[in-house]
Design a protein that fits this description.
Layout (H helix, E strand, L loop, with lengths): L1 H27 L9 E4 L19 H13 L2 E4 L5 H10 L4 E6 L2 H6 E8 L3 E6 L17 E4 L6 H9 L4 E4 L2 H9 L5 E5 H10 L7 E3 L11 E7 L8 H13 L2 H17 L6
Parallel strand pairs: 1-2, 6-7, 6-8
Antiparallel strand pairs: 3-10, 4-10, 5-8, 5-9
Helix pairs in contact: 2-9, 7-9
Length: 278
Amino acid sequence: MPLLKQFFISLLLLTSLLTGASAWAEELLPREDTAQPQLIWCLDHFSRFHNYEDTAEPYGLSVDLMRELASRAGFKLTFTPRTASARCLRLMAEGKVDLMSNLRYSPERNRIIHMLPYRQTVPESLFLRHDDKRIIESTEQLRHMSLVRIRSYLYSPDTMAYLQQHPRHVTDVDSIEAALELLLRGRVDAIISPTISTTDAINNISGYTYRFQKAPLDFSRGNSGYIHIGLSRNSQHVAMLDELRQHLNAMIKDGTVTRLYDTKLIQPLLTSTESPAP
């Protein structure tokens, strides 16, 4: 009898685990409302753009943009639980979610996602410690420096090509915060990282304000890329592609995208790093 009892307890635990996994899958795929299509947006926390920490629903400029697109195109916007970007890309490939935002273009992504551009990218920047007296104005000067690259970040083609050509001088880390910590401790000379997110991290991490500076090196040459909203090529709503593109283009033309991104976020943050800190 004890063995039989143990068997039934084990079976009950296994059933509970399987039910939990099924519930997670169902959470990503809510039931359709017959009156309105539901498109699932897969997203992680992305400070300033879509904040998703300690909140039931995300908020931020990207959320405002996506809600406006949903309103104009006539669909209900549904959020996944906070999900890492790499997992979101896998779910997009499988057609289990419909949308992602703030995506840079790559051929690999384009194979699984319809890419809808809505604003130009802000070039990467070179960040130094604030007490570093070097004036870095050309990539040639980087040959003698130890650099940090953010592993999960998709760099612009020219910047990525440079980093791949000089791998001995490059250290990969998982996050902007980890890169800033290495730089602050003097373990490396500089970080090449996304301008907006890195500036935001510096401004929001206690003790980091005025500890770093943005070098005058210009990475914009050859950087003509765009940020995209992505629609899964395997989405059950892929027929909405032309409609989404039409409404997104209208939002660009009527100034909605500029009002949300450039005026409220990007220009103030870029201005905050143009002058040296006191």
